[in-house]
Amino acid sequence: xxxxxxxxxxxxxxxxxxxxxxxxxxxxxxxxxxxxxxxxxxxxxxxxxxxxxxxxxxxxxxxxxxxxxxxxxxxxxxxxxxxxxxxxxxxxxxxxxxxxxxxxxxxxxxxxxxxxxxxxxxxxxxxxxxxxxxxxxxxxxxxxxxxxxxxxxxxxxxxxxxxxxxxxxxxxxxxxxxxxxxxxxxxxxxxxxxxxxxxxxxxxxxxxxxxxxxxxxxxxxxxxxxxxxxxxxxxxxxxxxxxxxxxxxxxxxxxxxxxxx
Length: 261
What we know:
By secondary structure, the chain is of the alpha/beta class. It has helices at residues 46-62, 86-102, 114-121, 144-148, 178-189, 211-227, 233-240; strands at 12-13, 28-33, 68-74, 107-112, 128-134, 164-170, 195-200, 249-250.
């Protein structure tokens, strides 16, 4: 008797995170893409999802007046898995699911580490209008993840055209190489002026040392990108500055205490 194949594991959206606001309408969606491993077909730990919830709640609170909804994506697998690029495929599925659930609303992909690479790679989805990559893991030298990854070709950037893109990287990151995210931003800036990059001096991969400033920067970028609100002056300056200035913008201590002009 033939054995029936087990069903493939599937990605799924976590429960929506939203703060009470003036309207019940969903005005925009953030998809949070967690970090992961270079190679693994195991299911992600539930702690990976739980660790994203405080950030999801902070973003939802900042966008309550515009009906911002945040979902944390549950990947099928922990790993990027070479040419399969599983998290990027899952992010594309998640964007499709957002359209199915909410209709024609703007989407911002926000990823950390491996999730940052997935956000950048999946940016070409028609529903995606903005991308925020924090300490993105990119192919090349440096870091334990990079040393175990077989890819050597440059990461594509064509899919970033027409999107607003922010990259944030700690200068003391020993897990993913800040220089690689600078190089990617430099290549992408040639075809898309709406790209900037902030450096968090003395911070590491988790961006914990200046967490308040990083969260404030992320919230400002999401509101400005999804809802056409004015960006904080440092973000405006970074977007307008020619490279390398706008791609090595320092994140000032206290950012967020007085965001607007």
